[in-house]
Amino acid sequence: MRVAFFGGTFDPIHRGHLGLASAASVAFALDRVLFAPVGQQPLKSAPSIASFADRLAMATLACNPEPPATGNLQPATCPRFAVSTLDAPRADGTPNYTVDSLAALARELPTASLYVLTGADSFLTLRRWRSPCRLLALAEWIVVSRPDFPLSEAQIAPLDLTPAQRARVHLLTTLNEEVSATNLRRRLQAGDPCPGLLPPAVAAYILSHHLYR
């Protein structure tokens, strides 16, 4: 089984996230994409606007309009999409590190081939992440090159990857979907429901819970 870990704030989850996951699942024959809202990102000082509970609920609605099941992995309407609580806030308030989440996922799915799904701008900061070499050993990486952020080999070079590590990094350059969560939040704050940019169930949740206002 080929499983991709897709971490992020998802504040809120939107059409761009789902389009990215769909494109990657097709391009790399993924059996499952795990959407994992993060409790606290170590490389971002500003907290998320919506709470973890709200972001997890919105991710669950985006993947599955039915009430979530118990357990770590939630069943999704799309058989390739699921929601994971691997990056839930820690009891001691410390940041969530991807290397810990991947290690836990590897223990949970010992026979699966693991991938990490991420954007090019985030991947280029890999050397600032905790245990970058272990990250590359635990999973292969699918790096999405956005239209406004094309990724080149010259940009990857400063990461100083070994040939074996570079072989575990795959570029996805066919995606032309570009939606900014920051701009969405600004529009939502101004009362714009952002039609077509949010899954309908997520838009309804935001409205009913008075988020981003």
Short summary of the structure?
With 213 residues, the protein is of the alpha/beta class.
Describe this structure in words.
The chain starts with a strand and ends in a 5-residue tail after the last helix. It has 213 residues and is of the alpha/beta class. It contains nine helices and seven strands. Helix content is 34%, strand content 16%. It has one domain (2-208): Rossmann fold. Helix 2 (52-63) runs antiparallel to helix 9 (200-208) and helix 3 (98-108) packs parallel to helix 5 (132-138). It has a seven-stranded mixed sheet, with helices on both faces. The chain has helices at 15-27, 52-63, 98-108, 120-123, 132-138, 153-156, 163-166, 181-189, 200-208, and strands at 2-8, 32-37, 73-74, 81-84, 113-119, 140-144, 169-172.
